[in-house]
């Protein structure tokens, strides 16, 4: 994968053509997982960490998993490219927060992602957890438009930008809407750790349990926040972004049901 990125950078370099042309812009979609542990290293005393739109020099900020570590390596590589080939290539690293399903097209939220898996688990045990915090879900089609805004900017763009929904929404309210759409009783809401134990006992969400135990509350509930001042400046889509409305949330459930995503809850 590193070799592929290097080859892409080289292709971008050679596609520049005439010497008086601006450098070719190469946009790389990175992840919030690269900065998961930023708070532990720099601001451990704060309950909510805001990560700046800048390079991360230390691998200690990264979630210890191959996906996130690979993203960090690519970020470092592109930073090097930007410093040494700036006349030919303009790399832009975009760390993306939590995406959700589309809002303006008939697609569905990918069933293997952790929030759909979270909802499948809740449906099976017929209960949702109590969540404290805020969510910054950004519909995937809106995210795509924001990347297009950045990619085709006429002015030079900073090396690192962050993209998530600048509008934060109450996590418990979002979950209540989704639970209601699934037909789950609000009386079955339980503390998060109790919910996690019940899901773990099913033995069918092993790949999800580690994330839910170690990273979900930081990455999904607003404890790690991405500074977006630069990205908002360069993206009209982000400037106009609003929260995800209830009709869209309910539609995610309806589309998932049509695809057989949610099996009948356990009795």
User: What is the total tally of β strands?
Assistant: 9
Could you give me the name of the CATH homologous superfamily?
NAD(P)-binding Rossmann-like Domain
The portion of residues forming beta strands comes to 5-15%
> How does the helix and strand content classify structurally?
alpha/beta
CATH class: Alpha Beta
Tell me the count of domains.
1
State the CATH topology.
Answer: Rossmann fold
Instruction: Give unreliable regions as ranges.
Output: none
SSE run: HEHEHEEHEEHEEHHHHEHHH
Number of helices: 12
Question: What CATH architecture would you give?
Answer: 3-Layer(aba) Sandwich
Shape: elongated
End-to-end distance: 46 Å
Q: Let me know the average pLDDT.
A: 89
| Sheet with the most strands: spatial strand order | 1-3-7
Largest sheet: 3 strands, parallel
SSE topology:
Blueprint: H1 2-14, E1 24-31, H2 38-42, E2 49-51, H3 66-84, E3 89-96, E4 99-100, H4 114-125, E5 134-135, E6 138-139, H5 140-151, E7 160-163, E8 169-170, H6 171-182, H7 192-202, H8 206-214, H9 216-220, E9 224-226, H10 229-234, H11 236-239, H12 246-258
Parallel strand pairs: 1-3, 2-9, 3-7, 4-6
Antiparallel strand pairs: 5-8
Helix pairs in contact: 1-3, 6-12
